[in-house]
Amino acid sequence: MISLTLFVFADEPKDLNCDFESGMEKWRGDGRLKDDGKGNKVCQLKKKGSRRREITHKIELPGNLAFDIHYRVRAMPGSTNVKVRHSVRNPKGAGFVTKDLKADGQWVEMKFSAKAAEGDRKSDRVIGITFHEGEGIIQIDDIKVVAK
User: CA–CA separation, 107 vs 47, rounded Å?
Assistant: First the structure.
């Protein structure tokens, strides 16, 4: 994985190169760049069968930092039983939340929180967004890290 180093957080969200307008070079996994029909580039995951589809990004954070990850996601019409899982992983474990999505093509704002380990001078984390269950197509855009 490619690491994106974030040394200082301001009050403004930090863009992890996640508007996808400039591509997916810092992301790993099953995502593909797609034009949403309005001139905006998004990350698209297609899933058929039981194999999960996922994108991940490794970040380095200052120690003891609490942060939120914001993004938006939508399940495209024709998709069925869609569940999206977002996670933050580190060498000691992971935290994750799974959410149901309606397959109506409408964007849903998502947010999840995490904290760097106590006493760490720096903390590597892997952010993951997974098409966890169901079949069809989901699109992801506008991922930001915001210090608490």
Answer: 18
Report which of 97, 4, 112, 16 is spatially closest to residue 58, judged by C-alpha positions: 4
- pTM of the model as a whole: 0.84
Provide φ and ψ at 29, rounded to 5°: 120, -150
Residue 138: closest CA among 97, 57, 80: 80
Q: C-alpha angle 11/139/68, rounded to 5°? A: 25
Question: Domains along the chain?
Answer: 3-147 (2.60.120.260)
> Mean per-residue pLDDT for 119-137?
85
- Do residues 123 and 68 touch, judged by C-beta distance below 8 A? no
Question: What is the spatial distance between Cα 104 and Cα 147, in angstroms, rounded to a whole number?
Answer: 32
Q: Residue 137 — very low, low, confident or very high, per pLDDT cuts 50/70/90? A: very high
- For position 21, what pLDDT does the model report? 87
Q: Following DSSP, what letter does each residue of 28-50 receive, concatenated?
A: EES-EEEE-SSS-EEEEEEE-SS
How many beta carbons lie within 10 A of that of residue 114, not counting itself? 21
Q: How far apart are CA 113 and CA 68, in angstroms?
A: 4
